Description:
It is a single chain. By secondary structure, the chain is of the alpha/beta class. The protein is built from five helices and six strands; from the N terminus they run αββαβαββαβα. It has a six-stranded mixed β-sheet. The N and C termini lie far apart (about 60 Å).
Amino acid sequence: xxxxxxxxxxxxxxxxxxxxxxxxxxxxxxxxxxxxxxxxxxxxxxxxxxxxxxxxxxxxxxxxxxxxxxxxxxxxxxxxxxxxxxxxxxxxxxxxxxxxxxxxxxxxxxxxxxxxxxxxxxxxxxxxxxxxxxxxxxxxxxxxxxxxxxxxxxx
Length: 155
């Protein structure tokens, strides 16, 4: 009977290690390096306060691709990071009903879908900028794969 308990304990330990590794690898800031002379990052479901601190600490202006919910949460926080964002691209809403918060950002664009956002970002990218792509908690894998494939065309 003790062997069964040890086996169960080992299974739980292994499952916990796998889950922690997945969280560290997939739900933390993922640096993609310097691409098209921009520092590029992606982040799955970031905590808004951590995102604000990261953006505020960037040495260059930021181009940020986000979901509408992420942009709303960021605006409501009203932290120091807002001042560093040059361009906000909302990629899951072709239009937005409430526009009062648009004034907080220098440039705002709304598109319907990650593919359209990447096409727009092809035209918006600039040297000496930081590009941050924040992904939703659900359906992030396909969007991150799309981003990673697209970044290869920016070389």
